[in-house]
């Protein structure tokens, strides 16, 4: 019998044909196989890789762009254990509107130790470090040298005259502490900047920039959202320091905002200090500390009812340059019964604000904002 010989070429062509047939069948019946084995997919493997397209940058208020950079700053909240739920609401709102992106720490201060429930609850809701501090006795309670008979008569007189907090000793302790001691607390010593928050306040707008960074980069010292008139009966002798110590006046100061007669008297305008962002190195400086030491020696926190708002306002207006004071229209803020709601440019829209611009303390007769803005543009 004759043996048939098969040439290598025929074997090669037969095998190649079978492979191509299988490939075509698989390509049509399995889409993923067809995509992976397509000519375009194979050739792409040998082309140089291209970088992804750039992500568009969002422009934010004050021409500031979000960054991972953080300033040496903290929130500070003075409150009591029975204000737990009010404090929780305040922290939840500032977290939702701002700090869930920036993660600045919190310092809580109290004249008695915080409870474990308080500490657990606030640590749970914050997105950053939370510290709890006990206020030193001498920083909070009325000094022993105060004439208690005189102080008691002063409180009774104000209470009889229906002056808000007129009969309260604890309110006076708080005002004295906020005026001259909070920035000296051991937990605050490591920070330069603070943002004061109170229990049961509201933040009505997304804060799309970092106020600490803005102030640092623009040489600001003090920032506010609400300005109004103080009760004259609570501070009859508060103005005396500057008359006796004019050497501490800063060049280009804001005297024209808080005095209508060149410094002879105080016109009662002040920044509402339950919201403030400021540089603690300014409070720790010579001019302000001399001012506070003078006030402390006069006993007016107890013989009258000096508030930390006019004390801070006089200090900022007289010992800093006028261009170091910042009004943040962008920050929608409420401390009942007053609300600041953004009304400049498109701040309300950009901040997705929930406040009513028509219900705005800035337009109220008690507001000093128009006076401040007119002075700043003079």
TrEMBL record:
Listed name of the protein: Glycosyltransferase family 15 protein
Keyword Transferase among UniProt keywords: yes
PANTHER family noted in UniProt: ALPHA-1,2 MANNOSYLTRANSFERASE KTR1
Pfam families in alphabetical order: Glyco_transf_15 (PF01793)
TM spans (from-to): 12-30
Keyword Membrane in record: yes
GO BP terms: cell wall mannoprotein biosynthetic process; protein N-linked glycosylation
Molecular function via GO: alpha-1,2-mannosyltransferase activity
Domain of life, source organism: Eukaryota
Active site location: 276
């Amino acid at each position: 019998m004759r043996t048939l010989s098969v040439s290598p070429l025929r074997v090669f062509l037969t095998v190649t044909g079978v492979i191509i047939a299988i490939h075509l069948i698989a390509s049509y019946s399995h889409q993923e196989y067809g995509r992976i084995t397509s000519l375009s997919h194979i050739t792409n493997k040998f082309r140089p890789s291209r970088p992804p397209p750039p992500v568009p940058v969002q422009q934010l208020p004050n021409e500031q762009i979000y960054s991972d950079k953080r300033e040496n700053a903290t929130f500070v909240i003075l409150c009591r254990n029975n204000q737990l739920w009010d404090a929780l609401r305040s922290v939840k709102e500032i977290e939702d509107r701002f700090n869930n992106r920036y993660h600045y720490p919190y310092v809580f201060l109290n004249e008695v130790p915080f409870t474990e429930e308080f500490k657990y609850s606030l640590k749970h809701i914050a997105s950053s470090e939370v510290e709890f501090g006990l206020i030193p006795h001498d920083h909070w309670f009325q000094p022993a040298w105060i004439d208690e008979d005189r102080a008691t008569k002063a409180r009774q007189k104000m209470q009889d005259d229906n002056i808000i907090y007129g009969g309260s000793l604890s309110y006076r302790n708080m005002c004295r502490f906020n005026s001259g001691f909070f920035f000296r607390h051991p937990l605050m010593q490591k920070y330069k900047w603070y943002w004061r928050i109170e229990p049961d306040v509201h933040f009505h707008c997304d804060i799309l920039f970092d106020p600490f960074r803005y102030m640092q980069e623009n040489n600001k010292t003090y920032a506010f959202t609400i300005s109004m008139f103080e009760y004259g009966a609570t501070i009859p002798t508060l103005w005396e320091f500057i008359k006796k110590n004019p050497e501490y006046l800063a060049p280009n100061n804001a005297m024209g905002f808080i005095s209508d007669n060149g410094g002879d008297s105080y016109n009662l305008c002040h920044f509402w200090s339950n919201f403030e962002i400021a540089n603690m190195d300014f409070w720790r400086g010579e001019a302000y500390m001399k001012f506070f030491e003078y006030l402390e020696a006069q006993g007016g926190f107890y013989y009258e009812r000096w508030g930390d708002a006019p004390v801070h306002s006089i200090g900022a207006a007289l010992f800093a340059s006028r261009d170091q004071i910042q009004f943040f229209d962008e920050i929608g803020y409420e401390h009942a019964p007053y609300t600041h709601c953004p009304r400049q440019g498109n701040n309300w829209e950009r901040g997705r604000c929930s406040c009513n611009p028509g219900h705005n303390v800035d337009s109220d007769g008690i507001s000093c904002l128009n006076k401040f803005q007119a002075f700043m543009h003079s």
